[in-house]
Amino acid sequence: MLFDGKTTAAHILQALEKENILLREEYGRVPCLSVVLVGEDYGSTRYVASCEKNAQRAGLDCRVVRLPESSSEEDVLSTIYSLNEDNNVDGILVQMPLPKHIRQERIVLAISPEKDVDGVTDANVSQLWKQKHNNYSQFCVPCTPRSVMRILKEAEIDLDGRDTVVIGRSNIVGMPVSKLLLNENATVTVCHSHTKDLTALLRQADIIVAAIGKPKFVSAEMVKEGAVVVDVGINTDPATGKMCGDVDTEAVAPKCRLITPVPGGVGQLTICSLMENTMDCFKRLHHG
Ligand code: NDP
């Protein structure tokens, strides 16, 4: 079964739009996401345009602060400080990667944890790691991991005790996904570039989450019959120049109970998670 991210995303955005009509009636405004974009990186510019488009579909306010590539660290910091103070901004997303002369850690530290819609601040990362259960009402879970979990939930995949292999241990995908899966009582093996026999581990897995960044890395021989495969990767296929995932979808799909395509899978839902996280920040601001 090929997961249909486009349809699922459309349903989520429709539900958000309805909710936002009610929020406007009750509070006089809708939740507002502010995206800080420094420079003109191609992938970032496209992603931010997609944020604006999807925010509009969800009935959310989205303001993009565009800063030139030559901006100093201080320029970016002062932008964030003023967004932190702005009572009409509920969520702040600083689009990564930043130009090389700007230290990412310093920028992330400046974001108010209450407005941290991608769960990247130290305060929110530590909240996630302290959490033993799946209650995330007091902070935002990073958007891509949230969308992976949403897909598994939408597809009614039972996670309790299941053999789950996460390939990748980055702070933005692999590690938070692993923690969220553990909180659902999955049995989680986290693999990385030093893992000795990845194929043997994958062949036993009921659920595979691939976040590697290598085109079509996971082949049909690596996957057992009936597995669930969530492909987080966004790569360019060297053979066709088109976007592809970390999984050879065409070859792997016939063996799977569920597989997410690239494009049209995790990425579609990541932007929805961003909108949902902004709504959650707004609601916490008003209801605690
Ligand atoms: P990173 O480069 O930070 O992490 C890649 C991980 O893959 C590392 O942990 C690395 O191991 C591991 N790895 C690399 N080679 C191998 C190998 N041969 N065998 C096993 N593990 C390996 O990438 P990200 O986590 O940032 O992103 C992963 C992918 O997800 C990328 O394609 C990215 O574009 C995509 N992405 C998609 C998003 C979405 O919304 N759809 C959002 C964010 C990312 P080690 O730690 O040892 O180096």
Outline:
By secondary structure, the protein is an alpha/beta fold.
List its traits:
five-stranded parallel sheet, three-stranded parallel sheet, 16% strand, 43% helix, binds NADPH dihydro-nicotinamide-adenine-dinucleotide phosphate, 10 helices, single chain, 288 residues, Rossmann fold, alpha/beta
How is this structure best described in words?
- By secondary structure, this protein is α/β, with parallel strands linked by helices.
- Strand 4, helix 7 and strand 5 form a beta-alpha-beta unit.
- The chain is globular, with a radius of gyration of 19 Å.
- The protein has 2 domains: 27-112, Rossmann fold; 143-267, NAD(P)-binding Rossmann-like Domain (Rossmann fold), CATH 3.40.50.
- The protein is built from 10 helices and 10 strands.
- Helix 1 (5-27) runs parallel beside helix 10 and helix 6 (143-154) packs across helix 7 (174-183).
- It binds NADPH dihydro-nicotinamide-adenine-dinucleotide phosphate.
